[in-house]
Amino acid sequence: MAEQQQVTIPVITKKDEMRAFSRKQKLAGKTVAFVPTMGYLHEGHLSLIEAAKSHADVVVASIYVNPTQFSANEDFDVYPRNPDSDRLQLQAAGCAAVFEPEGSLYHQVPGAGDGSNVVGRESGHPDSHETWVTVERLQQGLCGVSRPHFFRGVATVVTKLFHIVEPDVAVFGQKDYQQWRLITRMVRDLDFPISIIGMPICRENDGLAMSSRNARLSPESRANALSISQAMAWAQQAVAQRQATSAAAIAAEVRQRITAAGGEVDYVQLRDADNLHEVADAAAQATLLAVAAWFPAKDRGTVRLIDNMVLGQLPS
Ligand code: AMP
Family per UniProt (predicted)? Predict the structure, then answer.
């Protein structure tokens, strides 16, 4: 019988201990790379760990389902979790430590009671969380429309994690393209001494972008969700061959193909791949084609999938 693997990687849950761990590495002359995640790891996450290893001596990953980036009606409660398997995967991938600040990242407010433990100022609670990081323009549009609190939650928690882990390098996936551009801008604007690396999207063999949320798709939705990557591949070819270059026409066609497969489209947008400004002609610059759509879940409700492709050359 195969031996059960043991978790030997340090699992750090306290902020002070995490900071002390990183500072110890630095005192020993080592550089630290950081990969923040929400867990339920797949090959996409592990590709970030691989990249992190090539940019620093020591890699720290975090697993934290950040309550402040979910609205009340979103999937915080049903977000898939598998911490034991995650720890073993991070260990096998060569991480030096896992930071799991469950319940300890935000000041605890007694009686918050909704599982998030984060009470904002709007609650009127005297001990609420008041300080937020907002990246003013880049948080608008795309995912910022249907998820108005999302990027404020992301920028704030990433700032907190950066202050706790104190990395030299942090690695993000281009799967969350708007997030990658926003963190890159935040680091520039606020002078964080951290290099941000963006890594390409890892896909399943059939083209579906890997995501922890794919586990919640019904078999039928899993098949229908392929319409996203297939429609984007059509757009990429259409632009490369100059069959279609109008952003509005490409967006309409991609939207139609996903809707025909049973998806409910949140947005299909073409943006300048570097600064995310709106564009009219997809062939005039490196253009991001970004999609978000809901498909029925296998349990209850829907699963919101995001994906993107760059038509032309990526920004550095
Ligand atoms: P998450 O756990 O979904 O918050 O993702 C943690 C990090 O992994 C983020 O930087 C994501 O962009 C990245 N990531 C998620 N899925 C993929 C993927 N399919 N390919 C590459 N990176 C990914």
Answer: Belongs to the pantothenate synthetase family.
